[in-house]
Every structure is written in C-alpha cells, then in structure tokens.
Batch of 4 targets.
Target 1
Amino acid sequence: MITNEEGEFLVKLARSSIESYLKDKVILEVPENTPDTLKEEMGTFVTLNSKGQLRGCIGYPEPIKPLVNAVIEVAISAAIQDPRFPPVSPEELDDVSVEVSVLTKPELIEVDKPTEYPEKVSLGEDGLIVESCFGRGLLLPQVAVEWQWDEEEFLSNTCMKAGLNLDCWLEPDINIYKFQSQIFEE
C-alpha cells in the first residue's frame, strides 16, 4: 500500500483542504510534490473527530479516482456534507482531528451458506460492505474494535448502516464484501 510519509502527506492535505474550503471556499489543487503512488486510484475515507466524538466521515469505498484527488474531495465532504452532523465551522477546526483511511479494493466474500460469514471476517483487519437491492452500508475495520463487537455484531451493524434488518446478512440475496485499510491520523 502506501508509506508512513505518504500517509502523513495525505493527512496534512486533508486538513489543508478543509481549512482552505471553510475559510476561503477554495478547493485545493493537487500539490506538485504529490508522490506518484498517491496518484493511483484507491478508495479512501476521511474521518473527523472532535473531543473524542465522531464529527464527520465520508469517503469512496471503490478505487474510482486518484487517491490524492479523492482525499481532497472527501475531506471537504466530511466537514460539510455528512448528513449526521451540522457543517464544521472554521472556529471548530482547532478541536477537530483528521484521520485518513486508504482502502484496498473490496472483495466479495464467497460462502456456501450465510452462516459461514462470521468465520470469513477478521476483526480489526477487515472492513465490511453489505449490499442488497434496498441499500448499501459500509463500516471501516476500526469500528468493530472501537465498539468491541464480535463478528456477528459487526455484520449486523453493517446491515443496520445499510438501512436493512440486523440479520440481513443471513439472507441469501445479500452481497457482503470485505476490504482492508491503512489508517493515518494527526
């Protein structure tokens, strides 16, 4: 994946993107000194925390654009467009910490029967995406650890995030994907 130095670059870029947008309504250009690795298409999420509480989290689970461009976009979105929270104000920025997660491409978890899903999930390593024709939900790998969930609770809470029944993961027409992420934070 990416190096610690590249991760630090992304975290600083995420913060600069948020500051630039909140203070001047300017979307940063991709810096000229961006390492080539960060120009590859990768999924990413930017998570904002304030005083130990979630303050915003938005991202692209799929590798649909260059990582550096995606980080600029989702950092701003996490600050102003997460529907769970009011937009971050410029005055709040000193209290907000920035975290960037760089994701591997999601892989469909193959099982013969849905009861096999828990044994295919590695807590703390895998993030999950639950998908049906009625909704799609994603939880990053660190969420299961933070909430001290077991594999079934992680699956159930990902279903809930998709707006589906808690036990939807046991239904045969549900697709469940897993991915890994590297996490970089201030």
Target 2
Amino acid sequence: MCNQAWSALQVKTNQEKIVGQHLAIRDVEHYLPLYSERSLWTDRTVTLERPLFPGYLFVRFSRDARLPIISAPGVLRVLGNGDTDLVSDIEIQRIRIALSSGYILRPDPGMRVGTRVRMVRGLFCGADGVVTGLRRQCTVVIALSNSMHSFSVESDLEDLEVIEDLVCH
C-alpha cells in the first residue's frame, strides 16, 4: 500500500488510543500521531502522550474494507467521500519523521483572528470577546456589556474556548 493516501477517521474524544487498539486487532493500517507533554498534577509532574489531532487518527484501507473500520468501537465516521479529503502519504511521513526527530509539534488550538471566544479561567472568566491577534499568547478584545467601550487583554490559549469561528462562517 506504499504511497496510498490516508483517510482521516473521526473518533470519540479521548478514545483515540483505544480505537487504534481495535484497528490493530482488525489488521487495519492506522496511524495515531502522539506528542509528549509534561503535565503538573497535584502531587507530581508526569509526561503524557497526547494525540496531535484530538478526536482523529488516520487509516489506510481499500474501499471494500470500510466495514471493519466504521464498526470499531469509538469510531464516529470516515471523513470525506471516496477520493476527497485524503491525506497524502508524504504528509503522514513528514509528521512521523518530525515527531521521531524531536520536532515540537502541537495541536492547533483552532484560534484565528476574528474567532469569538469566552474566557474560561482567570480574572475575566466568563467574559466573551473576539481574537484580534495571535502571538505566544492570544490578544482578545472584550467589550463592556451595554457599552460601546472595549479593551484588549492577552491571554493564554488554554484559558479560552471557541464560541464561534467567524472566519469559517
């Protein structure tokens, strides 16, 4: 199957590794790119392996082998229809090489300039705003309720949740 394209498989959140195990048992060629991240727990620091694309993994299969894939526990759907939305073998190989060579790959938080967000931590927890800039931290403009006044604040991406991505709509 060398050079055959990969399909993205949407799976239930936090079940990527379990779905990968089910696919391995069914002899389905799959790839779940994982990155290592240090996480501070209350009593210690641990290193966790997390999916680079949360909620997704990649599979290669012939058209007649679709049923064992979509019937695996935790699988939601195969993205695309047939030849559309495929990921090239070269792209998957680049990800594999980058991860094994020590490149720091991290999931894209999905934030773009123009994305409506809600602060979920910190002093402005619960406030809604719009992303106006992206650097190491995210610049969010927050409008005062019932007022024409607004201000910007820099926030860590982890402290924000997407309400609506205006760029894509």
Target 3
Amino acid sequence: MSDEYLGLSPLVDRVASLAELFRAGGLSRLRIERGDDVVELRKSSVQEVPSRPAAPPQEPAAVERDRITADLVGIFRMGRPQPQVGETLVADRELGAIEALGIRTPVRSLGPGKIVAIAAADGQPVEYGQTLFEIERG
C-alpha cells in the first residue's frame, strides 16, 4: 500500500516543508494547533560553539563535566532554592523537575560537584535527552 493511498503523502510533505523552514529559516519556535492537539517545536537554548583549529595536545584535565539531561518530554520547573551557576553541591540534590501528564519527575544532580551551566529555563518545554545542567565533578 502506498502513502498516497493512505492519504499520508500530503501530510508528510507539509511536515517536511515545515521542518525545513524551521531548520533553515532561523525560526526559534513553531506551534501547530488542531482542535485540542498542540505540537510545539523550539530550537535548543544551548548554542554550539564553533570548532577552533587543532591545538597541540595537552594533558587531560582532572576535572570532568557531567551533563544532566531530560529523561522525558515535558515542562521543566526549577527546584527551590533555585540552582545557580557556580554553586557547589556537597551531595546529591534535586535541581528541578519535569512535569508531564500531571506527573512530576525530579531532576537530580547525581552527586557532588559545581554547577557550571544551566541550559533550561523555568517553564520551558524540554525534549528527551536535552541538556538541562552541566556539573563539574572532581
């Protein structure tokens, strides 16, 4: 059975053209509503840093960065007290939570360290695998 027979081809073409516009057109947010269904896409707030020319090899740093990522899709909520860049964590701590389908799932630091980056804002929709925090360990 072909996609055209199932009536999917026009829909697939529309979604593909929207995705291309989103990717190439500089859009930062796209919201599609149909009845009670809502789909919202946002570009990540974490910007990629352009690569630099290769530098001479150096000894690896003793400090490692751990990325705390979203385990599910939902709305991110900061913890209380609100975590701050530069804050030193003595032990495991709840940094925030993700709300999805009426369920609140905690986001934890997974041990001691220093918060070096916060990549999500309170109330921001997040996707599975999106970086929320970067923590220096060591």
Target 4
Amino acid sequence: MKERSLSRRQFLGRSALGATAGAALLANPARVAAQAVGAKTGDLPDLTIKEVKIFVLDRKRIAGGPTNQGYTLIASIVTNSGIEGNYTLATRYWHPNWSNLGWLEFAKGACVGKSVLDLPQLTSQWVPEKRRVGQSSYASAIDNCLWDILGKAVGLPVYRILGAYRNRVMAYASSQHHATVDEFVQEVQVCKAQGFNGYKIHPPSPGGGHNYKLDIEVCRAVRKVAGDDFVLMCDPVGVYTRDEAIKVGRAIQDLGFIAYEDPLPTKDIEGLAELARDLDVPLHIGEFLVSIYDYAEYIRRGAVDVVRFVVDNIGGISAGLKVAHAAECFELECAPHNWGEVFDHAVHFHLELAMPNNAWFEMTVPQGTGDRPYMKDTIRIAPDGYVYAPTKPGLGYELDRDVLDKLTVRIDR
C-alpha cells in the first residue's frame, strides 16, 4: 500500500492557501495583465463589451468538427476598441446543467455594456445555485473569450498573464476508443515513432458495453510492444464496477502504468477512496466534476491522486486556475483534460504552462484530429516530444477570417 503524506490527506487547513494562491490575479486579472507589460489599467484599450454574436458554420465542410444541431458554432465577444475574443460552443460532456443552446441570449444579458476589466464579476460561481447545482457552460465560454480579449489587449499569450512557469510541456498521445487489440498496438508504435514519450489507452469500453478482461489484454499487448520504459496510462472513462476496477488496476500496476483515470463513475467517491488506498498506480479524477466546489471532498476523502478538470465544466480558465492552485496546496499534481479542436486544447494548455504541478500535455491522436480549416494555427508535438507555448496574444491560435467567412452560413446576434 502506498504511503500517504499527512499534508495531502489530513492537514485540511491548508485548503485556505488554495483560496489565496493567485488571489491578486483572479481578483483583478486586468491589472495584472497591464502590469505584465509595464502599463496601468487605465492605459488599456476600451474593453467595454459592445457586441456578442455566434458564427454559425457549415458543418458539412468541416470534417470532424464539433457540432450543435448540424452546425459548428464559434462564440464571439467584441469590445468597443474592436478586440474580439473567441471560443467554440459545443456539447462535449453530458451533465444536468450543460447546454450551450441559449448561450447567445445569456451572454448578451451578462456582458453587453460591461467591461472585460470586471471579468471575475461576469463569470463567478459564488452564488448558492451554482455552488449547489454546478456551473453552466454559458459562463465557461464567456470566461474563455474574455481571457482571449485580455491577452490581445496587452499583446501577450494568456499563460504569460496567468504566470508563466514554463514555455513547453511534454506530450503524451491520447488514443481513440479502438475496437481491437491490434489497433492499439499499431497506434502506440506510430506514436513512439512521432516522438511521443507516453500513451494513454482509452479501452474499447463505451458504445455498447465493456469487457474489462479485453481491456487488460489491450494494456498487456501495448506494454509489450511499447517497451518497459515507455510511459503508459489507462482511462476507461468510468465504466467499471468496483470489482472490475480493482482487477484492472492491479493488472496495470504490475505493468508499470503511471496513471489510472476514471476507473469508476465519478460519483462513487467511496469506491474511489478504496481504490486509492489499495492501489499504487495514481488515480486521475475530476474530468466529470461540474463545479470547483466539488473538488474539496475528493481531496479530503483521499479519492484522488492527480486532479483533472475540463474548463468548460467548471467555469473556464479562471476556474481551472483555482482548481490547479488548490491541488498544489495539497501537494497534488494537476493534469487538465485536453481533447477536441484547437481552442479546446488551447485553454487547457495555457493553464498547464502556468502551473508548476503539471507534468503532461494530453494530445489527441491521430495528430491533426483537432485541426479546423478556419484556424490558421495547429498544435503539434516538436521532435523532442514537447508542445511549445504559442507566441500570439490571447489564446494564441488565430482564426483564418477568410476561411471563416466562406464557411459561415449566418451570424446570430
């Protein structure tokens, strides 16, 4: 059984540090952004929000694109000074409070006439309903757009405002849910040849049931072909029973895996705590939590070893930074989820670049899966296995306006 540090499991008073870490940034991100370029807040362009709109793109011409009612939706928030922030609106994960339908009306009511300087007020979850039910995706997309604007206003990538800890992150390849052992074996060989230093298996579990014995077979086959020193992880996406989870966990532990992600449904906090006590392989938990206020109990109960989050689920970049700080205060690593198209990767990447307690960038494979024709920039690993920080301001990955215009079937205002 693995040893547990008291500072991680019992000294809950340290959670107060999580509330104060980065307090100046989260309380007044505009002031911190201005200071980063030697300016005052009053020197910034007029960041009053004058317009909120959605670009509705023709999905048929965007293979693999995120969709909502047959279209790809790009959120746009524009200031009086003409600075625009963008983010993708899409249904990514199911939970009771998730729907981007109605985002436009909500965002117009929340943002128009307000200033990006007041960012925390526009996306805060500190009201009883949101703390109890969970953050809606509306505020998450708004928050991401506003950070994009703030970075552009001062000419810096977002991670430089958040507090750059590094300028690159080591990448691991994150698999699709393949159906056969051979598909995983072939893919990990391709990923090694491309320079990846790690590979995460999404076993063939979702979509018609699962077979934990097949999952173990996949893990053994991948370890055999990848070699003993190659980093491997397993993410069954919460489909196992407790008995299945312990059996798979012991198998991958013996195979030297470094991560066991969401082996049980996230709501089974007691089962996760038992797994954490019984296994040495670290549990990665948090992807399916829907509020920053959900994390404390998992940390307190010892039901998580490495904290994960999806910014869309918990309130955007601002919320992700809070979770990262809280994990750090309990000496826990934080491994943000990374999946989807360029903007999805970007928001998590900026947080990874800003946090000391992160080790990996999760890269969807095959590389290029997240490319979109309306984006000028793509995300790839370098020959050394790292993903390097963007240099453009804001989210750092630019829309191709000419292509966007050609793909846009209408603009909702």
